[in-house]
Structure formats: C-alpha cells, structure tokens
Amino acid sequence: MTAPSALPERLTYERVQRLILGNIKTPDLSYYLVLLFLVAGVVMGIAFEIRQILVGVGVAGINHPVGWGTYLVNFVFWVGIGHAGTLISAILYLFRAKFRTAVARSAEAMTVFAVMTAGLFPLLHMGRVWIFYWLLPYPNQRYLWPNFVSPLLFDVVAVSTYLTVSLMFWYTGLIPDLAACRDATAGLKKKLYGIFALGWRNDQRNWRHYTRAYLFFAAMATPLVISVHSVVSWDFALSIVPGWHSTIFPPYFVAGAIHSGFAMVITLLIPLRHYQKLESIITLDVMEKMAKVLLLTTMIMGYSYAFEFVIAWISQNPFEVAAFRYRASGYGTVPFWIMVVCNAIVPMVFFFRNARRSLPWLMGISILINVGMWYERYVIMITQSRDFIPYAWGDYFPTINEAMIMIGSFCWFFMWFWLFIRFLPTVSLVEVKEQLPAPRKGAGHAAQ
Amino acid sequence: MKRRDFLKLAGITGAMTAAGCGREGTYHLIPFLHPPEDIVPGKATWFAGTCRQCPAGCGVLGRNRETRLVKLEGNPLHPVNKGKLCARGQAGLQDLYSPDRLTRPTTGRGAGAPVSWGDALARLNDGAGRAAGKIAVLSRLENGYAADLFSGWLGRHGAFADIVTGLPAHPRATGPLYCYEPIHYEAVREGHRLAFGVDAIPTYNLSRCDFILSAGADFLETWISPVEFARQFAAARDPKKKNARFVYAGPRMSLTAANADRWVPVSAGGEASFLFAIVAALLESGAVAGRSAGEAKVAAAPGGRSAEQLAEAAKVEPGLVRSLAARIARARRPIVLADGSADAVVAADLIMELCGSAGKVMHFGLPHALSAAARDADLAAFVARMAAGEIKVLLVHKTNPVYSLPGFAEALAKVPLVVALDSIETETTAAADLVLPIHTDYETWGTYSPRPGVVSLVQPGMGPLGVSRPLEAVLAAPDAPVTKDEAHLRFAEYAAPKLGLGTGYTAELRGRLADGVVRGPRVAKTPPIVTLAGYSFAPARPKDEIVLLAYPQIHRFDGRDANKNWMMEIPDPLTNITWDGWVEVHPDAAEARGIADGDVLTIATPHGEAKLAAHLYPGLAQGTIAVPMGLGHANYGRYGTGVGANTWALTRGAAYVAATIAGTMEKARVAHTDGSKVQHHREIARTVEEGREHEAVHGPAIPLRIPTERYPDPARDIYPPHTHDGYRWGMVVDLDRCTGCSACVAACYAENNIAVVGKERILQGRELSWLHIERYFDEEATERPRVLFIPMMCQHCDAAPCEPVCPVFAPHHDREGVNNQVYNRCVGTRYCSQNCPYKVRRFNWFTYRFEAPLEMQLNPDVTVRNKGVMEKCSFCIQRIKAAHQVAKVEGRTIRDGEVVPACVQTCPTGALHFGSYLDERSRIMRLVKDEKGRAYQVLDELNTKPGVIYLKKILRGEGGHTA
User: Fold this and answer.
1) pLDDT of res. B33
2) Would you place residue B165 in the very low, low, confident or very high pLDDT band (cuts 50, 70, 90)?
3) Is the CB of A387 inside 8 Å of chain B's CB atoms?
4) Which residues pair with B61 in a beta bridge?
5) By CB atoms within 10 Å of each CB, which of A12, A113, A306, B223 scores lowest?
6) Is the CB of residue B872 less than 8 Å away from at least one CB of chain A?
7) Which of B52, B50, B43, B88 is nearest to B70 (CA)?
8) Are A290 and A262 in contact (CB under 8 A)?
9) Binary contact (A135, B807; C-beta < 8 A)
10) What are phi and psi of B612, to 5 degrees?
C-alpha cells in the first residue's frame, strides 16, 4: 500500500469500482453472437469426438509409429498455457511484484480454463475413453490398481492436483470481489453472488482469514508451477524414445510453459483491456513488464533448442543424433523452423523498448509465440516418426477430425473466458485498491 | 399414485429392464442339435488333406475346432513338405471361407440367373448327351480321383477317353481332358528333352549339394515345389554340413536371388548364353575332364563358340564366367537349375553332366506331376478347336483360363455350352453358360500325386459350407445319382483298391486317411543320360530395347491367390508393397527417364497395354523392367478385382517380351509397409563374414543377455532379474536360414485372428501384422544389391519398455517370461507402442470386420480384438497354455519342442526355434551356446534383454573369392 505503485496516480477507489464492476452488466447482442459461435464450436468438437468414439481413434491421423499426434500436442500446449497464470498469481505474489495486480485475475482464470481444456485431451486420445476411470486409483472388487510407475498416471495426479489448486486459489481471491458484486447488484444476481461470496462481511476476521488463505494457496501453487509441467515432460523424458529421453526436458518444458503462458496472457489482455476499457489499470507498463518476461523465456528457449542438439552430439548416440538431424533437416523441417523462428528469434524484437510498448507488436509476437509453442510440441510428437527401427518409420498427418476437435477445444477455452469476463471482475478490485492511496474521509469509501 | 398404478409401473419397468439386458439371440458353440460324438468342445480334431494352391501338392493337416476348419499346418508325414507350408498354403483356408464363394448354380453368361441344382444338372447332362462326343474338360492339374471322374464322364458321353489314371504320368495334351496350368514349366521339360531325351520335370535334390547355380529358377518362391526346395536349400546351406554356395543369374533379383551369395545380373534372354559360356569355359579349362561319359557330345553343344564369345553375348564379364566355372568345377556335387528358355535348361543340364553331378542331384524316375500339364502348343490347338466350333460342351474345372490364357475368352463364344465347375467367382465363371458350385479342396474327397509313388489324399476337413456339391455328384450319371452322404463311399470304392487297401471304406484306408499320404514302393532312380540329338546352341542376340519380365509373385503365384485378403495384405518380401500392382524399374533407368517412385507408367507390349505405378528397384539387369503376375483381374472377388495389371495379357505367357514405357501425369499412392529401405547402420539385421562366425564378439562389444535369472549382470542392471516358474519362453531366429518368404506371417494371421486392414489403412501405417519380415537393402547403392531379411515380432523383453509405462498394467510380464497383452484391461493410451523400440505393438484403430464367412476361420482360442485395444505377438500363448494342460494331466513338465508357435511350425527352412531358456539343454539354449559368435539381440545397447535372440546371417564368399 505504499509506493512504488505500478498504477497511475489518478485512479481512485470509486473510479476503479466503476471501471471494473461496470463490465458486469447486461450484455448486448454482439456478446451473445460471440457466445453462440463459441458454443457452436464446442458442440462441433463434441460431435467429432462422438464420431471418434463410435468409429474408432483411427479417424485421427495417428498411426504406427506416431501414436499420439495432435491430441497430446494440445494437451501439453494447454497445460503450458496454464502455467503463466499460476506464475503471475502465485509466484509474483510471493515476490511482491506489483505489476501482477492488473493481470493476475485474468491470468488465473486463464489457468483454470486452460487446465480444464488440457485435461480433456488425455481422455480424447484414448482408444477406449469409456473406461477412462481405470486410470484412477479407486477401490474395486478386482483389487486392481493403476500402475503408479507410469508417467501417464503421474499426469493424472499432477493435472488433477493442478486443477484443484488453481481453482481454489482463484476462487479464494475472488471472494471479496464476489461480495462487491453482490453489493452492486440486485435480485437473483445478488442472491447468486451472495452464495458464492460465502457470506463475506468485510470484517476483521474475514480479512484475516482471507489474506492468510490467499498467501497459503500462493505458497501451495508455487511448486506446482515447476512440478506440473515437469511431470508432463516426463511423459516423454521417461520413455526411451530418441529425442524424448533427455534430462533437459523438465526445465525446458517449464520454461516453454511460461513462454507460451505469458504470450497467451498478452494475447488475451490486449483485446480485453480495450473491450472493457481497462487501459488505465492494465497499463502499457504492465504490458512491457510481461514482454520482458517473454524476452527472458525466449532466450531460455533458444538455449534449450540449441542445447538439445549439443546433448545429442555429445552423446554420440546414433539414434539420438539421427533424431535431431531429421528434426532440423529431414521430415520435421517445416514445424521445426516454425518453432525456432516463432519462439526463439522473433521475440528478440522485445529488446527494443518501442516494441515492448507497442500494442500491435505485442499482439503480433504473442500470437506468433502461441503458434510456435504449439509447433514445439508438434515437433516433439513427430520425433517418433523416425525412431529406432527404420522399417517401422512412418509419417504422420493430422486429419479433419483432429483439427475439428482442436478447434472445439479452443472454442471451449474461449467460451469459459468469455463467460468469465461477463460475470466476474476481470481485475481484482481488492488488489488494485490495495495499491491506491486510501481515500480521504468522506470521499465515498464504497464496498471495500 | 394408486397401488394398482404403482404395481403396473413397477411391472413394466422390470420387464423393460429384463428385456434390455438380455443377450442378443442365442449362440451355440457347436452348430448341431445333436453333435457327432467325436466333437468335444475345446478340443481340436485334425484332418489330413492336400494343398492344391499350386501343383507342388504339399500335405496339410487341418485343425478342426467345433466343426470348423481354423488352421492349416504342414503334414509331417508328407514327403514333399515334411510338416511345412508356405504362405499360400496357409491361405488355403481363405478359399474355403472366401466371401466370394459361389452361392448357387447359375445359368447364363455374365451375372447369371439362379437355377436349381436339378435343372442345372439336367442341362449339363442334356447338353453333353446331345454333343455327340464333341466335349472336352479343361481342368487344373489333376492326376487322381478328379481326373478319373472326368475321364469317366467323358467316356460316358462318347468322347475319346484314353485316360487311364495312374502312374506314371499320362500325357494329357491331346484331350479331351486338358490339364491346364498357367505356369507349366514347358522350357524345363523341353530343355530336359533336348539334353537327356526325357520330356519331364525331374526330381531334384538340393539337400546334399555343395554348389547351387540358378538361372531364373525361383525355387524358393514358386518354382515347381517351393516348400520342398526351400527345405532342401536350408539343409544344403547348413554351415555344419555342406555349407553350399549359391549363385543366381538372371534379369531380376528375385527373392531366391536375394538369398544367393551372389546375384549376377544377366539381361533377359541372356541366361542361356551365360550358362553355355560356363559350359564352354568348363570345356576349355579341362578342369572337369573325364567326369562325364557324355563329354564328347557336350563338347559340340556350344556350337563352336568360345566362353568369351558366349559371355559377351550374355553381356557378362568373361572373367566372371571363368571364375564361376572354376568354382563349379571344384564343387563335388553342384546343381544347376534353370528356367526361362529351353536352351538355358539344356546348358544347366550340361554343366551338371560335365561335372558328373547330374545323376546325383536329379533323376527322371519320378517325374513331377507338372510333366503332364498341357503345353503351349496343345493349348493353342485346343483354343483353335474351340474357335472352330469343334467343341460343343466344355467343362472348366477350378482353373481360370479366361484370365490367364489369352484368346480363350474369344474362343469361348464358339462353344455352345460352357460349364464352370468351381467354388469361387472367377472371370471364367462369369463367362460360363452354367456355373456349378463344387466343393473346395477342404470339403471334398480326392487324390493327387505330386510325383509317382506319392499319393496325397484329399479329404474334407469339415462339412460343406454352402450349397456346393462334390464333383462326383455333379458328374454322376442321371440314373445313378450320388448324394452328398455317399461321396465318401464312392471315394472309398475308388481309392481303396487303387491304393491296395482292400475294398470299400476299410480300416486300412481310414488309417491312410489319417496319415494323409500313401507312399508307393521305392522307384529305382533313372539317372539322366545325355542325348543331345543334333543340338547346337545359337545365342539369341540380346536386344537393346526394354524387356518386360513377368514373374510369378510369391503370394499370388499365377493369379489364383489374388482373391485372398491375406495374400493381398502380406507385403511382397522385396518391395514390401501390398494391395497393389507395380512395375519395377531400375533406379538408373528411372533417373535417365525422369521417373520417380509412384509415377504411373504406361507399359505397352505387342500384346497389350497396362498402367502401373513405378517402383524403383535396384535388382534389375540393364534394360529389364519387371511386373509381378497375378493381378489385373476383371472379376475375381472383392479383394482381387481391379488391382494392378494382368501380365498374361501383356506377355501371352512368354518369359519376356519387348516393351515400351511412357510416363503419364498421374501419381499413384502405393501402399507399402517399409519405412526405410536401408537400416541406417543400425545393425538391426546383422551379418558375419564366413569363417568368423565362431569368434567370440565382433564390433561393439555388447554381450548377449540371456534373459533369465541365471545370467544376471549387476553391472548393467539396477533391478534384480525376474524370477521364472519353470520356463522362460523364448525364440531363436537364424537369419542365415530365413529366406523372407513370409510363410510365418501368413501362419500368424491364421492362428491369431489378425485383422486385414486394406490398402487405405496401410497407407496410413496401420497394418496389424504381429510379425513383420523387415527387409533392408545395402546402405549404398551398388551394382550388387544385397538384401537382408529379419523377422520382427514382439521380443518379449525381460526389461520390457512397454510394461512400466502403461497406466493400467495391460502389458503384463508373466511368470514364464512372456510379455502378455491383457486386451480386456487395455484402455488404449498407446504409450506401450510409443515406448517399444522394436515397434511391434499394433493398435486397433477401428473394429475390423471379417467378411462373412471369413469369420468362421477365427481361432476360438484367441480373442478377437475390438477397437481401441493394443495387440501384439503373444508367442502363441494359447499353444503354451494347451501344452501346460497336457503336461499337467500327464503329471510332467513341458518337454522341449512341445510348444510350437504357428510361425515356428510353418517355417519351411527351419529358421525359427522356440523353447525355454531355463532348460539348459533346450534347442534354443544349445543354439545360443553353439553359435556364440552369431547370437545377438536387436538394439542390445538398450539393455531390454529381449527373449528373441537372432543368429547373424553368414556372408559366404562364393568359395575362395568374394569378388
């Protein structure tokens, strides 16, 4: 509550209140049209998944030897997206980085929705999805337990833990804001917000519990930022496949996750701050700071990409060397170079302050990073197509079915985000106000 | 709600629930109300029979489970195949269960109108009765029961029937019974007639030869009796015995040539010159002087030409000819096989004669059944008679001349009544006036003699599947009809006296039927005596133009197996192409003409034209293009129709024809199973140079890991070894014996209910075969491409990478070392397949259909997998379990050799061995210990400790020199 504040001086409690809660209003037709479009996309994705269940996973382009394809590409992609949210809301919170205040809520929402999306794909890719619950350790008559040694079971545990913790963390942070919404609305809305505000009374005890709980969840979520994507990387690193079996994978995946997550936050926030007129809260300074984080992760990514080749070369393992040779100059050329250019070269532009503070540059590069990070996972997936036995080599091409399910997953994510910006405060009232000078007596100390 | 309403509702709900949960219909394990007493559910009955997929006449044992024939295996008592069977033999079941079986008698050409059996037979008898003897029968090669039935029928209807069944073979050229085999090895017969004065295919014996030279005789694939030759070849090549050298000369590196120590490219038509050059070189060098009584006669045969001149005519280095001649002269018992032209066969015979081995490696005492097949001239005369209207009624029996005999279809128009006797839909049945469905070879009775002294019995392995009738019922006189229940009695009446087993359905006959074969008395070998009446060789000038070579493909032979989906799905061993036709073009020629793999070419010969996808194949002599036979069917069932090109129409049966090729703008998507032509120095299939096979280790020193607890290596393992209960099952694959023939693959399809996925899915990389014959060419393109084959199935690793990654324990390591896949438990994450370095796990991307009635062939001991489930080689776990049961009942342990997986059982060369590594005296342990220098495990650097141990292929020089 003391300087330095990342927010402009002219904001007041009242103005913040109006700006943020003002977006929770009866939407216009365009909102519904967008929502309808997104829901239609989700329905289409579901339709194609039903087709896949009825006909068989063969409707996708996966084959021998590439058995996972875009389903696991999207899984890793969406889990990765999630990480930036937790990093912003938890780690930066613990580090008292003030710039996070403006973006933490949206980023955390993005995390929850991204993990909700990511969690679908391990199910979608299964040959017999109708018995997915066999992966869960539940007591049963046959005394059969899942295999706790399998990285896929690690995934089940990691992702479900991550979803639970992020959801709790996000919700905890929302409680005072929900109470503000309750106080600002009437009728049924008031009732619903009231239920979710859990009877927040704004008294000393509430605040004590709230701040302690938030800190506690932040502390709990922090290791997950590192662990979840490390665990996801073990799906690959714990196998024996050349190009996958590498100790660099966990840090490389975590850095990549942050890279893609920050890019996604920027991609979401630039339209959002414009749409909800939050320019005065989500300022260019905030954007610039995120671009700086991207610059850091860009260099980590570039280093990782290069170092993978070095590891392969040092190992002198012919399979490993061949895997990387094919990746850079063989069958994987196009995705590989999309990945390198989009993730490790283009974002170097952020060395220039003007680019960091230019919305078109920020938007353009963040989208390129999203594309590049998707392709990074694609490159990893098709590493399989040239593994140990040359006779078994084969190429993989995604099919319409996979594309439609992927589009459906994007619609699913954006549908939740679209609903979120309509029903919940996209910036934390509490935290913004914390950073504002306290209003003078009698100057209208509203809900908080 | 009133009590009454409640009860009503409850009743309805209960009834609905009960109805909804009920099973769909009733299934009977045994499709009889009162089953015959010898049918015990779960217990197989075996019936001996004879494979008629080619004229070799191998003996088979059919495994009958709950009244259905589910598997064929070679008959160990049979002298031809001694328990082994080739891929086409395995696929014989698909004739029986073909979805394209004729379902009723029809009348009228084209689609045909259904007609009752009574009317159909009346029409046949009526037509034959009014034909006044102008009748003929065109049958596939028959020389026993069926031939006599036809002779009787022909005789009854006044045709000149001089056919007396029996041995020795009777010439059937002049009709009215023509034994038609599309591939009838006329050049071989003619060559022997010229050289030795015997117009017959002799009995060859490769097993004790120490040098084999083949010029165009693909004896490991289709030539005459491939299973027999493959077995003999493996025996001759045994490094502990003769360790024979093998050189192949010919225009194409066939599968047989790929197994040779050296393939000498000789342009099409140049084989005779090449062999005569060797004859001349032998004569010139004098190295074999005095070994042959007929040497003087032989000396005149090359027509005064020198070895050099002849080598030049064949476009082969004279030095090579001389060194080869010198090598042959050093051999104690060389054999030279040839096909393609009579001259080549003459030369082959003369080389053997000069070396004094002709009498040791071949004899004419027991001419092969094929010696009685109609010759080209006979067939031409017959077609001319048809065209002239001299035939009023023609019976075509289980052969398809409309497809394979050019000109036959046109001549058919002049025959008023064409009756097709067949069990499946063919081009010929479509062109017949009357189609009579008759039993397949696994539903009927009969005899077939592959050679004199061997009568192979044909008997039903199960009841007839459909409306078809036995031949004797169709050919019976109207006043003495034969019902289907009498067929066996008729056969017994015929066969028992003929085989000297009393009269009627005697116990002796039954005993022989159980054996499946009756051996005649030993026949004195008739050694060949060189005649060469006035023969003198005149080399054909090799032409500069492109020559088209049509070769019998190993899975489809002359075309008769193109309607079997196994034979279409199992990749060609050399090109690995499935479900497609292709034309092989040498990469250099292709480069010169701008042809790329998959380009569609128009091939024109004087006889016709065809469009085929180009396949760049290095194993071709200059100027040669090659097309596999057997495809291009216009009407051959759902699997065989409309694929590839009909070579019979292109070549009219000639060995080679001049051809032109022209590019089209089209590009074909050719389905193939190989991901790479070479092994990228990865040492998947390894070789060892001759003489070094007993050195301890070569190359990277990764010691063999016998995957049992007795051979732990704490330096390489973190975890303690698995402990086993009594057995650790494993396999040893001798790459030196594997010829790549793919019989094991077909056996695996048959035994393990593996689904056939079709072309589109193979294009996507989704074939389901549990066993692949991986084929690798040399890394660098050379003049002499070398091919390595390695059968790759689940390695049943002791440290299996698939096992830890499955989240639900579907891959399960059992107490006997077998890596089991628990289908019921599999949820389909495919991680096991991702993590399998051998890529032998196969996923069910869909629920695959077995088109009725192919589903009747399914092995009841093996689960049929559904979509979403991973599957793989199980080491035929069902057979291991069966052996356990027998051993348990008998209170003993399983003996070595008692468990025989389907692939091991059928391998014609004995390349596969199965047993337990825990038994130090088991066959596989002895092999591993004896062959220390050759034994290795694929990808041994990964330390997966595979349960399959390979023995390196031995690279033999051709003796003395490897140049």
Assistant:
1) 65
2) very low
3) yes
4) B48, B73
5) A306
6) no
7) B43
8) yes
9) yes
10) -145, 155
Q: Half-sphere exposure of residue B200, counting CA atoms within 13 Å on the CB side?
A: 23
Query: Which pLDDT score is estimated for B173?
Result: 45
- Closest Cα of chain A to B189: distance in Å? 41
- All residues of chain B having their beta carbon less than 8 Å from the beta carbon of residue A392 are 675, 772, 838-839
Picking from A68, A239, A391, A399 by the largest number of B CB atoms within 10 A of its own CB, the best residue to mutate is A391
A331 touches chain B (CB under 8 A): no
State the amino acid at position A149 in one-letter form: V
Taking alpha carbons only, the member of B956, B950, B959 closest to residue B786 is B956
Residue B398 pLDDT class (50, 70, 90 cuts):
very high
Contacts of B794 (CB under 8 A, 6+ apart): B770, B819, B838, B840, B841, B872, B873, B874, B875, B948
Neighbours of A23 (CB within 10 A): 20
- For residues B91-119, one letter each, b for 16 or more C-beta atoms within 10 angstroms of the residue's C-beta and e for the rest, the string is bbbbbbbbbbbbebbbbebeebeebeeee
Annotate A50-110 with DSSP letters as a single string: HHHHHH-GGGSS--SS--SHHHHHHHHHHHHHHHHHHIIIIIHHHTT-TTHHHHHHHHHHH
The total number of residues shown for chain B amounts to 963
Q: Give the one of A239, A393, A394 whose C-beta lies nearest to B805's C-beta.
A: A239
Find the mean pLDDT for residues B732-744: 95
Alpha-carbon distance A402 to nearest alpha carbon in chain B (angstroms): 14
Q: A63 and B764: CB-CB below 8 Å? A: yes
On whether the CB atoms of residues A256 and A76 are closer than 8 A, the answer is: no
Chain B residues in contact with A128 by the CB 8 A cut-off are: 826-828, 867-869
The two three-digit tokens of residue B749, written as one number: 């399809």
CA distance B819 to B945: 12
CA nearest neighbour of B327 among B355, B363, B302: B355
Question: Residues 241-270, chain A: which have Cβ within 8 Å of B?
Answer: 241
Per the CB < 8 A criterion, the answer to whether B867 and B711 are in contact is no
CA-CA-CA-CA dihedral for B407, B412, B415, B418, to nearest 10? 140
Which of A:100-139 have CB within 8 Å of B? 122, 125-128, 131-132, 134-135
B759: enclosing H helix or E strand = helix B759-763
The answer to whether the complex's ipTM is over 0.85 is yes
The single-letter code of the amino acid at B350 is: L
Please provide the size of chain A in residues. Answer: 448
Quick check: bond before B168 cis, omega within 30? yes
- Rounded CA-CA distance B821/B801 in Å is 13
Residues B510-538: tens digit of each pLDDT: 888 889 999 887 777 777 888 887 888 88
Say how far apart CA B182 and CA B440 lie, in whole Å: 20
Would you say the pTM of this structure is higher than 0.80? yes
Residue B122: strand, helix, or coil: helix
Report the run of H or E that residue B625 belongs to, with start and end: strand B624-628
Report how far apart, in Å, the C-alpha atoms of B827 and of each of A54, A120, B807, B808 are. 15, 15, 9, 8
Cα gap B685→B792, rounded to integer Å:
10
Residue B839: both structure tokens together: 């890529």
User: Which of A389, A400, A401 is best to mutate for the B interface (most B CBs within 10 A)?
Assistant: A389
- CA A380/CA A121 separation, integer angstroms: 16
CB contact under 8 A, A58 and B828: no
Residue A75 CA from chain centroid, whole number: 11
A149 touches chain B (CB under 8 A): yes
Mean pLDDT score, B747-775: 94
Is residue B771 within 8 Å of B748, Cβ to Cβ? Answer: yes
SS3 of residue B917 by DSSP: coil
Quickly list H helices, B157-225. 186-196
Check if the beta carbon of residue A302 is closer than 8 Å to that of residue A376: no
